[in-house]
Amino acid sequence: MANKKNIKSKKEIKTEKNNKVFNCVIVGTGGQGLITLLEVLSDAAIKSGLDAKTSELHGLSQRGGSVEVHIKFGKKVFSPLVEAKKADLIVGLEMQECLKAAYFSGPQTQYLINKTEVAIPGKPLLAEEEIIGNLKKFTKKIEVIDAADICQKELGTAAVSGVYLLCLAAFKNLILLSPDLMREAIKSSVAAKHLEVNMKAWELAKKNAQ
Amino acid sequence: MNKLLENSKGERVMFLGNEAIIRGALESGVQFVSTYPGTPASEIGNNFFALQKELKDDPKFLFEFSTNEKTAMEAAIGANFSGLKTLVAMKNFGLNVALEPLLPLAYTGTRAPMVIFVADDPGCHSSAQSEENTRPFSVLGHLPMLEPSDAQECKDFTIEAFAISEKFGTPVIVRITTRTAHQRALVALGELAPDRKINLKGEFVKDKRKYVTMMPRLHGMKKEMLAREEKLAQYFEKSKLNRVEGVVKGKNQPLGIITSGIAYLHAQEAMEELGVGLPVLKLGMFHPLPERKIREFIKGLKKVLVLEEMEPYLEKRVQRLAKDANCKLEIRGVDLRTQIGEMKPEIAAEMIAKFTGKKYTLPKFAPKFELPARPPQLCPGCPYWLVFAAVKKAVDASKVIFGGDIGCYMIGALPPHELYDYMFCMGSSIGIAHGIKKAAADQKVIAFIGDATFFHSGIEGLLNAVYNGSNPLIIIMNNDITAMTGHQPHPDSVGAVHPIPIENMVLACGVKPENMKIIDQGQSEEFIAAVREFVDKPEVSVIIARRPCKFVEKKE
Which domains does chain B have, with CATH numbers? Predict the structure, then answer.
């Protein structure tokens, strides 16, 4: 429908009922590498033969502030932005940021949350129970994963927490992308010097998803 | 190899809207590119800069980070008048700075194809100062303005913009907004411009009649410009950049939508969600508008919805056209939305639902808990922490007026610093400080400005303050780089090819040597003493707080 240029076509416009688009929002704080995660996901989506769009934020948001990025994939994606309450998956690299992402959550939304908090200067850290309790008002599907800790212990760096969480989502069927394609996507999206540890994060997710 | 240089026609690559603009310029064979960084347009310069390094043994284009948007525009004009295919890029506020040379360019016209890229930032994701909508500049300047929606269109429209410029001899503006600029999507590659043994050597061919904008010739130029604009309007009537989707079936289809840019994508999504299929006139340009096409579209309608972001400029033009085309037409749009902030898919859905009488409730988000606000912070180890701390120790902050400017140090307005008493546009901290000192001489003023911003447009303010004899204290935050927009070089930065020491500039503006100090803010006692001494000086004084951004060494 999007590219139909024929003005005089007698065809009625039909909406594509089977155009199920997967809506994903990733939140965190500046410097957590959210844009790389978008590259991995969009690459995997395209390798699956799907259309994909992302919306990213650049500039001042990289200075340690809140960062919220969107990725959508499906047969045909129009707007790059996820609509309010329409997220299928919200990946939170920082727990407190997940509260803001509640804007995008409805009962269908699955949260996958990295059990990490980055302090906001001048404010006390929110308790995990408080955050989860508030999120439960929006959706029942909340999973908190000690990704930063697991990656630090097993792989020696928490920097791959995001990739680990995404791979876990793939292995747990929370995201409609096959783990094998995620693996290929990591290979083509991650810089060579960080590739090895990211591949290990994939292996680790495979092991822990079982 | 950089994927922007891949020559595999037909292959589909994920590109950011801004990258697609670059690819379009490369496929068009752009020869000269100038820019000043500013988000959401920064990736244009960053990528050309990276490509320039990659291609240093076999350059395909000339590129420069100019000192500001005006000089970028002037450089582009000079290169263009010398026969090179030219791209000049900036963010919305940059176009204000570049407006002075841009308006006469519309009169003279171009010699080679020329595209002016500008990115607006509805929602102000990476902007302070105003939520500027640059659309009216096209009308003001009699300049064609194209508005792509997605990444593919960013590439296609850029190529088309160069082609239009070549055909009509006018510069063409390509305008996008944040969610198009920072949208990553599949783009089908075309062929890179053939290696023309890339002749980057231009030649200025004298033609006083064409390039000297003086009366009486100027009115002749204006006549020619208006004729070009008229021809363009005719051309746009048939342009493939505008299209009607769906059928306007006379009386059976009394509703329709007119939209462009990012709003078009939201509209499509919303229609799919609501299960409505309205005919859509998707416009690829804002100026000149294909008026006949719009008239034809609205002629058979009872109601039309104009979907656009921010100010209802398009809607007002449709209203004017409806007066003779369909005077009973009901025009909806801005009455169903706010002019503040960006268009979102849910807002488009609500508008279309209200327009068509479908049921849709705008999701309300009113959580019963506090959302943890996380304002941006200076990076750990940023040298600006030391400046703010030292200044607060040096003076009684309640008795001094602090001026802020544009850069990472804008964060000085936020907690825990909460320093600035005014903040405007690039370079203005000094200019406004001078005015305050003239009007309220008893009050003390300290103006902060970054080194890149000083070179951009702070110099003029300093010159004026010295020349007109006021006495603010100016602290130049000399971190050796243009940090906020992604570490671009500036005239006194690491990596500057022809460095101009910032202290030479300050002295050249007439600041007396005894009224200028260069101090590493790490030497806090010395720094504090200098602030205390200088803030009471009867003449303009300058402290250059010199310590590099902590990412500078890593980068270079």
Answer: 3-237 (3.40.50.970), 249-356 (3.40.50.920), 384-555 (3.40.50.970)
